Amino acid sequence: MAAAEPLRLTVARCALNSAVICTTVATDELQLAVDLGRTARAAGFGCIAVLPFDAVAADGLDASDRGLLALLPPPTPPLLPRPQFCGKQYLSRRRQFHRMRLWRMLLEAGFHVLGVDPMLRLDRNPLPALGVLRVRADGLQVAGEAYLGAGSSPDVVGGTPGFSLKQIYTYCVWLRSTPATRLLLAQAEARTFGGQDAQVLSEELNWGAGANASCCHSNCLAKQFSVAKPPPAPARPCASQAELPLAPPPPNRTRNSWPPPGTAKAWKPAAYNALPMAAHHFGRCTGRDVACSGLHETCPPPPPPYTRQAALAESRRKRGGAKKKKVGQT
């Protein structure tokens, strides 16, 4: 933990009850971070932790705006994607690398992390809402195993996932600093060199390095923020590199259907690996029936446990709606 001490000293002024709001930015996104920092200050946080992709010129900000940001030094060497990501995906891919690096560093420094994209704006202090969320304690089992941490405050809270993707959205995630989450982020950061951050984070949380972290998902997270309209994206030169650190393979216990090692589409440590949606599977942290329990006044009620009967009722409802629409078109 000695390496975390300089970071801890830099970020300590941002913390509220040991929790830190953090984000990552390209050099032309610094104003987005300042605007996020203003809403964090209004919500009770001293500042936000910011990891820029490259060196940024904060001298152009006035003193009050500079005080809203705890600017960390950009990674050395820079975290650059492979040439295949030059184009529309370039900014997203760089953010994935820096997001995982930042979350891992802050957790190792002992801070709880609310990691957000720079376009989000806090509407209020989110900690009271996060504080009432609990892992479900209604006898739920996942893949035949009792749910980890039932009734406890979760180590990881993601927004309610897109159920076709079966993975946590990484634009806004809550992580408590525990041994389990520190292991999770160390592995997720390493694997992100070979895959999408949301995919590998969810897979490691469900079945891998984060398997001892308690978790649930909640649409309460989204209710704590509003989304700012991003400015028009400027033309960005594409700095890339062909060789990245080797990415570890999926965990042995994964339920996602990766092709077996040695086959053409198996996980390759020195390449980018994509898994089709149909090969993703629900897990203990991303399943339909593992929404957090607990209710804060700013949050909608959590959904009831997902059952076969509920699935059939939803399917009938959709079929009925489709029939009505078809009748109306004739």
TrEMBL record:
Residues 316-330 have a biased composition (Basic residues). Residues 232-265, 296-330 are annotated as: Disordered. Residues 246-262 have a biased composition (Pro residues). This is Photolyase/cryptochrome alpha/beta domain-containing protein. It comes from Emiliania huxleyi (strain CCMP1516).
